[in-house]
């Protein structure tokens, strides 16, 4: 009999990709994916540890499974991902009915762990080594992933895919748990990356987003020399069928002129860069151990502007980091005003066990102040984003159509014209009235109106005729 699996994924793009791999693997072991936990034999939660809130949500979702497990002890529950690596036995303590705890570097072990449970070995835990639990190479090996398994059905759209080029992180920003949960930085081999990209192209993928925690620091040392991100992009650019190449997330210090000119010179590379600043205050950046000052960030930003004047740049900010004064915060406001990011993800600082900030710095900004700074920074960001988008009014943008927008909803399932959504080359979201068959196409859309997050347009008449609307 076919077994069924339900998977709930939270967190970053790495997790979305990991879930795709897990499902590809389980399908090869006879599993079928279902949309609800009720009908599943195996319930998987792919988790995130970046902020406390993400963890608490998962623990509360797990808490609700206690009854399910009482009623159906044969169902298996697995906690995967960063929280599994970080909390390990704590998960079994807080949720004793969980059967498996599997870190992000051990996901390939999942089918074996299920077999172990079936043969009566009890609950299972597979996690990678901690940063100090062995020699660097051994620790790194324990974090390896099994990327070549791909499953288009698990992607948000079949013509867009993530491709991991780098595992882990060695930057050790003081607030961040990632160097612990995902282990040492390792560049995957270009041979593996290229063969995976070719598989994706054969599966009909038109846009690939390369993933790494500090993706522009990518480096692979091979027998025939070093490969950096620029060299890798040049090779990926040759693959027929791939139309767009993006990469996230970039580290400000490693945004070299060589990389920027490569992006400029390769038409498939999107003029879109996600380069988190985190703060606009030197004192805060220093406590975060980000490795750059505001003026160095600005130098990098100006380098982007001069080489790629059309590029859209986005950022992340943390508000309320240890010791952040009103003046420090104001400097983050100023940085957004100066850089006019396309968008910024803004987060309230959350203490993470095992980080340097948790050990050495006091989380002294009150919760209400964090919330207030968050709102204020978001308002500034939204204003500059809208002003930036207004410049695109009246222009024509090329859109890779993703599918019906959320607004199109279920009610419109039979309608011939629905609101469709897609993205420009520089990652701006576009909505327009169109047809479901346009999903996966590259269309020229005329921009009529804008908000801070969206361009609202209409397909140029020529295309409307050619697709028979
Ligand atoms: N608290 C709040 N935000 C954090 N981030 C990383 N660690 C923390 C933390 N402890 C944010 C950073 C990072 C993004 C992915 O999450 O802005 O760029
Ligand atoms: Fe975390 Fe800093 Fe590494 Fe990004 S660069 S994953 S914020 S430690």
UniProtKB/TrEMBL annotation:
Domain (Radical SAM core): residue spans on this chain: 155-387
Binding site for [4Fe-4S] cluster 2: 169, 173, 176
EC number: 2.8.4.3
GO MF, one example: metal ion binding
Residue ranges occupied by any MTTase N-terminal domain in the UniProt entry: 3-119
Catalytic activity: N(6)-dimethylallyladenosine(37) in tRNA + (sulfur carrier)-SH + AH2 + 2 S-adenosyl-L-methionine = 2-methylsulfanyl-N(6)-dimethylallyladenosine(37) in tRNA + (sulfur carrier)-H + 5'-deoxyadenosine + L-methionine + A + S-adenosyl-L-homocysteine + 2 H(+)
Domain (TRAM) ranges: 390-461
GO CC field: cytosol
Major location (coarse): cytoplasm
Cross-referenced InterPro entries: Elp3/MiaA/NifB-like_rSAM (IPR006638), Methylthiotransferase (IPR005839), Methylthiotransferase_CS (IPR020612), Methylthiotransferase_N (IPR013848), Methylthiotransferase_N_sf (IPR038135), MiaB_methiolase (IPR006463), rSAM (IPR007197), rSAM_horseshoe (IPR023404)
The protein's enzyme class: transferase
Similarity-based family: Belongs to the methylthiotransferase family. MiaB subfamily.
Function per UniProt: Catalyzes the methylthiolation of N6-(dimethylallyl)adenosine (i(6)A), leading to the formation of 2-methylthio-N6-(dimethylallyl)adenosine (ms(2)i(6)A) at position 37 in tRNAs that read codons beginning with uridine.
Oligomer and partners: Monomer.
Protein name listed in UniProt: tRNA-2-methylthio-N(6)-dimethylallyladenosine synthase
